[in-house]
Amino acid sequence: MTHPTTHSRAAIRWAVLALMASSVGAHAQEKAPGIIGQNGWLFYNHEFVRSAPDVDISIDLIARAVKALEANGTRVLVALAPIKSRIYAEHLPPSHPMTDDHRADYGRMIQKFAAAGVATADINTAFMNSPKRTDEFPLYFRHDTHWSATGALLAAETIRDAIQANPSLQQVFAATKPTKHTLVWATQRFPMVGDLVQQLPPGSPTIDKEMIAAFEVTKEGGGAALLGNADVSGVALLGSSYTAGWTHFPKAVSYALQRDVPSVSITADRGQWFGLDTYLRNDAFQTSRPKLLIWEMPERDLKAPPSMPYREARYVLDNQEWLARVGALAQQRCDPAANQASVAAGGKLAAKAGTEASAPASTAQDWVDLALAKPSSSQEYLSARLVTNGSKAITVELSGPGATTRKFILEAAGDEAEHALTIPLLSKGKGYTKVRLSPGATTGFAVKNLEVCKQPAGLLG
């Protein structure tokens, strides 16, 4: 057993991270999102907004993305974090009752995912039926939107049970590499200021700090799971702030599955849609694809598809554009299209060959044009290898006669290694004939191995 002093240090570290994380994103809004409930509980106003049509759009997009991933060797399990207001409806204020529709929403979502062929873990039912729901340390923090360490562990155990109950997932999981993990709860309790405290309406009463519990998970042999490490188990975790390290959910998943599970947490300002795009674009996925991807997402986020304009503009994507991005990134190899691409003359970055260009350095004003042999089809995407040493953002501009010009920014690794570049050629009008890449200031630039590839059949509507 771990020495009690170790428990204390781990719990203190966790508590500090919790305090830091709960303070992120607190900002003034026209209507304060925090709600004062009964018996010392706080809730989130946005959980009471419903939009069934948008939920249906989100589920369809997720199902199409999952199909593309699974066709390329990565099985997916979707784990919806249920809304706190349903799990603790008895503490809601009279002004915000839990309606029958809200009570049934999670079950309807699970059924629609199942009908679309997407495997899920029913965390809502597990939470509602758990005797720990009314423990001293409940499944959600009283003053925060996130699940507690107790809830994180139960959510992880529910994911484990969902895998074991699904023969197809169980077969994939059995082929992954086990690693023994041990969990020990801390003996001390620590005060926390939840994110909802900072989002209450002006003039609200003072809310005392909430006392929280924590646990520590240790892996046999030590070390931590790293994304892109070929020696990890073959299971990966992608999620929202519910998957942030301070919630203990990633550790809980590793413990429940007895696997070394690397994780990625995407903050709410970016959202789950941009999160999957970012993860698939990263070398962690492109060079070491997991056999099983656990995709955690808040239930409430399903009513906000990629095109929902409540985030920063750079994180808002047309729904079909998002699908075209992740569909292209999911492919393990290029399925050549009838079209072709080459480096065009006249750019400020020297062309080496028909499908290559490079320079020892570039400035913020430099660019290179890639020419398409014929106007692109929306079912095509551009594939290449890219180096932008020193620049972590590349501006992409798509244009052509009669086509509506599109311009956007893609994140880049910014080091001296080659990385995968995929650019969907989705157009709602005439196709594109030119792709301009502006890498920014670099100490080394290269684009090579240009190909025009076909999107998976049936991906785009």
Structure write-up:
Helix content is 28%, strand content 23%. By secondary structure, it is α+β, with helices and mostly antiparallel strands. A hairpin with a 5-residue loop joins β1 (34-36) and β2. α2 (52-70) packs parallel to α11 (319-330), α6 runs parallel beside α8 and α9 runs parallel beside α11. It is globular, with a radius of gyration of 24 Å. Mean pLDDT is 90; it is low at 1-30.
Question: Any key phrases for this structure?
Answer:
5-stranded antiparallel beta sheet; single chain; alpha+beta
Major sheet characteristics: 5 strands, parallel
Please compute the radius of gyration using only Cα atoms: 24 Å
Separation, N- and C-terminal Cα atoms = 55 Å
C-alpha geometry:
globular
Number of helices: 11
What's the total number of strands?
A: 21
Mean pLDDT: 90
Low-confidence stretches: 1-30
Structural class determined from secondary elements: alpha+beta
Share in β-strands: 15-25%
Q: What topology, given as strand order, has the largest sheet?
A: 4-3-11-9-10
Helix content range: 25-40%
Outline:
The chain has helices at residues 4-23, 52-70, 84-87, 100-115, 123-129, 149-165, 167-174, 249-257, 271-281, 283-286, 319-330; strands at 34-36, 42-44, 75-81, 119-121, 181-185, 190-192, 210-212, 215-219, 235-239, 263-265, 292-298, 341-343, 351-353, 356-359, 368-372, 380-388, 393-399, 406-411, 419-424, 434-438, 445-454. It is an alpha+beta fold.
